[in-house]
Design a protein that fits this description.
The structure is a homotrimer. Helix content of chain A is 31%, strand content 22%. By secondary structure, chain A is α/β, with parallel strands linked by helices. Chain A is built from 17 helices and 25 strands. Chains A and B meet through α8 and β14 of A and α2 and α4 of B.
């Protein structure tokens, strides 16, 4: 377990570095990330390098026993590079340049960017690849897609398409360009989606987004190759910015050793039960699922964010510590706070760090120091543990993108709808892994595969095999609609999943915000909205019937026995209570322990391994909460003392319980 | 009476064409529209033509007794054309190109577009001008204006202005360019309104919109000339997209045989009394008024629309049939459903047709088939009938445009305000024709001429003559404000209509959303908003006085005897109840039958001719409705049976009654 | 005292000029502004001038005893100039031209604009510099900043920076460009903020805004130099458009003789107590503070505004007169109505003047005529008087701009927050001068210095000296945050004002719209929002403590004795009642007369001088109001009659009382 900070020595007089390092050491900091935006300092003009300051910074930290992660600086091409090689700049969809100054001024397809990134990364890795104070590398920073319409991007896109489709005849057929006379007769007619209209061919748009994601992943792999070559024994990671993005994070991280995430929970906790708290849990579960192993938080909330936009509320007392524990609880092996000092200069002056601008430790710093000390105490217990769950949710960046290109109804949003189901499990205290939809899920007991809008035959086969062998599957509406080229299938819905679900969709009504109701198993009334499939069960039985509108009495939700297992099909978007009731039933069938009375904002998570098992109980709210845990004798790992039930949690209270 | 579908054989394997034709025949379909977006299939590369597939399609349909309307494909220039002749693309008001991909990528002023349109239309008409299965032509598709700032557009605009004004001295004077030093000293200084600012000279902006409308009309006439030359015996039409648009539809259709309209009523019927239902009636009345004869619906709602935007609700059970009958009731002689099959490919995948993607007939298809069968039964009765009314509303695309350039007050919208008055007649069961404001209206008994903002002397004269001869006229506020060049008149309001109205506007208050009240004839209180004229009656009598604000007690509405007739002047925008009360009074004076208790969403229309008279009673709502008709013995044309009163209408219920 | 109108003879046939002049004379008009947009009439083509019409117009007016102010026409470069010298046009931040037609089409940095402005202004001043009917000049029109990214602007910006910083090393250090690798290695890399992103370096953005303000001021000074040279004995002014703008009006007017303002109070008075009314008072106080002397209203509301945007309500009966008196009450020595006639042509047709389009005098003209007559009666009494107050508020266009670049929290807006404090004084009947924050304020008794976000050492010193010597200072939150280069200070807040305030900010919470409460002096509860400093008093005492959230019980507002004076620090944004209660206390300590019961919308102002003292009591509302004045015997200057108390004010009632 590591605790660290992000640090920008280049922003400060070097006179204070030593004092900073000393204070870091005193606060238990063992790792620092450096240099990820420092290209203009490392290479002030083309071909002229200056590593002296970075040597000093690493040494200064090293002398205090602090290890370093270096970020490659490719996210911020310096002015000389942009001026001399303007192809570094992306062009927007009207082919106007994106100007430098705000960190987004680089086209991943630019040959000049590639060449100069190669030079600086080679220099950096050659110099620090064997530095004992340097333990690893972060590539670039928060790569969140590419939307460049430069000559290079257009040319790369054509190559990408040639590789995928071979010739224009195939491309025209697969995309259905005949619609609106869009057939290409020459490759020179094929461009990126210029003009930015959302009306364009959806097959074209989805492939373009795949190309964008691939361009980014390729740029990341290219850096990883250089680092791997020069830096044996040092790890490689990247710090992701949370979904929704165009990027396929599974691809992006395929050459990384582990995933890292930047975690900025919302500080407005006036509505404790609202999305922010749960959003964090999903972000952690998603990040852990990328490499299916523990991860780092490379930037953790340390103060109110705010810059060009208004500042949010300052973190409530206890929040810095509690949310850092949340990261650990859900699988972080390192928590790196962003940042040590609030910047005095530049656009992020008011994105507050652990210290305010005056540099004196205050309340937020003290909370961090407490967390740091607690981690030190629990370090041995945490080593070798990770989060292991019985439930997997299949996440797909391709569904996310396809459903953004064609929103299905008012309010229908892949990520929000996905999050709502994840939330239901969280409120029931049931841990979920969130994994790539195309990966292996055979070891789980329950698999939730929502919104399989684009149909992948292999995934369909795996789901069928999983259920056959005794697993339980939850499927939902808007599945089996399209093939992977974003063309509608001619099978009845839910396409290839029909026999698994045991049901066909006779008709559907995109009800949007026109709320409807249904009744679950004849006795629990719930609301639903966005979309209503009107189901005709074949082998399935109904477990939920609509009670409103012209489809009153028709089936909304089904359960189907399939081989040794079971498949549920939810033909609508339920409200929170509806999901919770349904999932509690499913969990009960599977003998998964579920809490009925977990207060809103209280989260549970278990880390286990090497014979240890730690239950984290987090009160991520501004109010006091108490709960009755279904476990007999409990001991706090933080205090060593026995816990009496009900467990009382102060605002932002954290408890870590030894289960064995 | 024809029933048909829009069909895209080029989107489907030709193996299914035969089966489709067979099913169409079985469903009573007698006409199909083809090919209006198929340029890239008809001319895959420049000068190379392929009509074989279209021959086949027409033959396949013809063998089943189905006639064909061919759409000219000029709305979608293919990629080769755009690549080779980039002047085909419009430039936006910042002179950036509008890129292909979304159907709007053609500048009507482009010489290359003109030349290549000529080639393809000549080829098409030469080939099919005497094909017995082809009964007519649709030019282009939904031409909704031009807003191109290309070299050709600018040059054409200068020519247009030279023709209208002769020289710059006149132009400068008529437009009042002296304001803000906008005088032109050379023609090269005259451009289209670059930059898109709404602050520009309103005379300039209105003439530019007229030029845009003329450019489109000219492009349409140019196609009509070719078709007329090659296709004796086949009709020519165009499918209009509803107002508001820049286009003057009266000009656009001047060389067409009849008008067609694309009709997509909103499927969200949760508020039955709201605008969608009535909007349909106005659309039909407007379309019928363009050529003052029956029309076609070239695209009729067949399923939920939705594409790049979220899908709406699916049509409520019965809606497909009821709204198709609404079209017939208001003068359609053909109803062509859009479309036969939901597209599997392209941007409009979720703009649903009669069949879902799986292609199997379902509820919506059945409703259509029922409508088709009913039309077949009533066909003989419908033949030779049309809608004849005593009331005309004068519609002006020029007022619409002028009032969009200079919105008069918060909430003031020409089309919405016009629609509200039309709605009042509809709720009273009084049929209205909606006709061009400059056309002859001497045969009507009541003429409503709202918002004659731009004053046309001929129209003023005709209104005076009409009233003199015994007609009744309803005038409104914001009349007589400007001359036709969009320059304010120096006469007191309402300008040249003062003696007809018998009133002058002493002062006005653009009250916007600041609601006011008035009292009608001393006993009916109504709300008003947007605009309040404070009237000084000269020869008129007050029929409505304000009761609020500083103008309480002043006159709001007047009635003036003029020759043998009467003129009303409404100096404000009334609420729905106010309009209904006022118009009921007017109708009562004229002995026009008016319903007092027509339920919201129930519409009446009469088709008559050749000694027949059919009363359509439509319940366009999700609820059951009943009404008492003031007619004695009634027989249903649909069932042949006698009707007992009150007439009970099921949700989406349709009744067609034989009146003689 | 002068009363006048803005007049555009060039828009009308010269036949009516004589009649207009006659009617003006009859209405007591003594001054007319002419020609500020007439470049194309004065110089129809390059180098060809036509002054005959302007000679005539001036003569016609002169014969009626009406004096003339000429506006230089540089705000509207004519088409020939733009066509021949396109560098006249500004480029937007994507380097696209701003097209002519809407009055904003000139780049202040353009050499061609400068050269041709010089020619026309020299010609004009040479011709009219000694015309006895011409009393003064208005430069340009409503210069509200420059946001041009033309070559000239970029080049001027580099020169401006070189002059300020000398070299790039200094620039890089002062701006902190090291953040995100933004360091410049060549001057050619320095541009204006292209692309328009709000994310850019805030030091860069603030300097760019200063440069824009300087470019405008320089253009104004350049015109003033020419006028001064040719027009001895004639005054020079400029008509400002109210804040918020980028311009530093103190710089803009430094070569002007006095300030002028264009005053268009909102006509929607449905909420009498709302901002519009008070906004006028602040506008007047700001304008008077620019040169610290009386000013002109160069454009005064005469009818509903409305053009490309919807019209507002017509001025309520009495409003024209009452708001003209408001201008006089707060220091106007001339009220020039905009405009004589409503324009029949051009974009501002519905920006109504004193006459409607028909040109006949009506209600609004009569109100103006009454005002004009009253001014004539009071003229002798008003001569030599001005507004003298004990309280100054320090206004800073630099804080305004810096706080727009980085909004601090939801709802935090410098101008609105400033206005709210000004409003509190107004409601208490306490007159306030609003002066430049860097100017001398030693003669006041109370100085309010809110939101000194950027810290100016000289201002800090002056505030300390002022309090030392016995003055009272009110400081607020968000002071001492930054240095003048927009870089955060490393001192504890409120920076250099700490000892004056006697307090440090321990922590802060940007609460935004999350409303909090506090209690003043233990007995008055008030709301607060936007921002909460948590204060640690050093030498100060608490006068307000929070009662909510985690900072309940902590100090929000302090009072500190400092030398012979006192400093208050308000660590949050109070609600209206909170400010009023606090300021009433402060006023009471200083024995400043404060009204406790002034009805909303009733404003007081005193003009005094030359042994005279006039109290203006204005009821700027649609309702009747009455108030008890704490003065014994009162006489109306308007009627000469004695006033009995309570003073009853009719809607829009105006009373002018002789105090001595």
């Amino acid at each position: 377990m590591k605790v660290g900070v992000d640090y920008y020595p280049e922003h400060w007089d070097c006179e204070i570095w030593e004092e900073d390092a000393q204070r870091m050491q005193a606060a238990g900091i063992t790792v620092v990330r450096l240099a990820e935006f420092a290209w203009s300092r490392l290479e002030p003009i083309e071909g002229k390098f200056d590593f002296a300051w970075l040597d000093d910074a690493i040494d200064t930290l090293g002398r205090r026993g602090i290890q370093v992660v270096i970020g490659t600086p490719s996210a911020t091409p310096p002015n000389w590079l942009v001026e001399k090689y303007p192809d570094v700049l992306p062009l927007d969809n009207k082919r106007q340049p994106v100007y430098p100054g705000v960190r987004l001024h680089r086209c991943y397809n630019s040959p000049s960017l590639r060449r100069h990134t190669e030079i600086i990364v080679k220099k950096l890795t050659a110099r620090y690849g064997h530095n004992p104070n340097v333990i690893g590398w972060q590539t670039d920073n928060e790569m969140i897609g590419n939307d460049s319409h430069s000559d290079a991007a257009i040319s790369d896109f054509r190559l990408w398409l040639k590789k995928k489709y071979g010739d224009l005849t195939t491309l025209n057929r697969e995309w259905g360009t005949v619609v609106w006379s869009g057939e290409y007769s020459e490759w020179t007619q094929v461009n990126t989606p210029l003009g930015g209209s959302p009306y364009q061919n959806p097959s074209f748009l989805l492939d373009y987004q795949r190309f964008c994601s691939d361009s980014v992943a390729d740029f990341n792999r290219f850096q990883a190759r250089i680092i791997r070559e020069n830096c044996a024994g040092q790890f490689i990671t990247h710090n992701l910015w949370g979904y929704p993005v165009v990027n396929d994070y599974y691809d992006l991280f395929d050459k990384m050793d582990f995933a890292s995430v930047d975690y900025y929970p919302g500080t407005d906790l006036s509505n404790d039960s609202k999305s922010w708290i749960y959003h964090g849990a999903l972000t952690h579960d998603l990040t852990r699922g990328i490499k299916r192993r523990n991860f780092w938080v490379m930037e953790q909330l340390s103060g109110t964010p705010g810059c060009w936009h208004p500042m949010s509320r300052t973190p409530y007392p206890g929040m810095i510590r509690a949310y850092a524990w949340q990261s650990v609880a859900r699988g972080a092996d390192a928590v790196v706070q962003f940042r040590w000092r609030s910047a005095r200069i530049g656009a992020e002056q008011f994105w507050h760090g652990l210290h305010d601008h005056h540099g004196k430790p205050g309340r937020r710093f003290d909370e961090f120091a407490r967390f740091s000390e607690e981690v030190r105490q629990l370090s041995a217990m945490l080593d070798g543990t990770t989060v292991v769950n019985d439930v997997a949710m299949l996440f797909s960046h391709e569904q996310l993108n396809a459903l953004q290109i064609q929103p299905q109804s008012d309010g229908f949003d892949y990520l929000r709808n996905f999050k709502q189901i994840h939330h239901a499990f969280l409120r029931l205290g049931i841990g979920t892994d969130v994994i790539n939809w195309t990966s292996d899920f055979s070891t789980y007991r329950l698999v939730v595969a929502p919104f399989l809008f684009l149909e992948n035959d292999e995934v369909v086969d795996k789901l069928r095999a999983f259920a056959s062998a005794g697993g339980t599957v939850i499927l939902t509406t808007r599945s089996g609609v399209k093939n992977m080229t974003n063309v509608c299938l001619s099978t009845e819905l839910p396409g290839g999943l029909r026999d698994l679900a045991g049901v066909v969709v006779e008709e559907y009504d995109p009800v949007g915000n026109d709320g409807q109701t249904l009744v679950l198993r004849g006795n629990f009334e719930a609301g639903c909205s966005q979309w209503c499939d009107i189901l005709a069960p074949i082998t399935a039985e109904s477990v939920g019937d609509y009670t409103t509108d012209f489809f009153a009495g028709r089936t909304a939700i089904t359960r189907n026995s399939f081989g040794k297992g079971v498949a549920y099909y939810i033909g609508t978007i339920l409200d929170d209570e509806g999901y919770r009731a349904l999932i509690k039933d499913v969990a009960s069938d599977l003998d998964l322990a579920a809490f009925d009375n977990l207060p809103p904002g209280v989260e549970l998570s278990v880390r286990s391994g090497s014979g240890k098992q730690l239950l984290f109980v987090l009160n991520l709210t501004k109010g006091k909460n108490e709960l009755q845990l279904p476990v007999a004798a409990l001991r706090s790992a933080l205090t060593g003392e026995a816990i009496t039930q009900p467990l009382v949690l102060e605002p932002m209270g954290v408890e870590v319980l030894l289960l064995q």
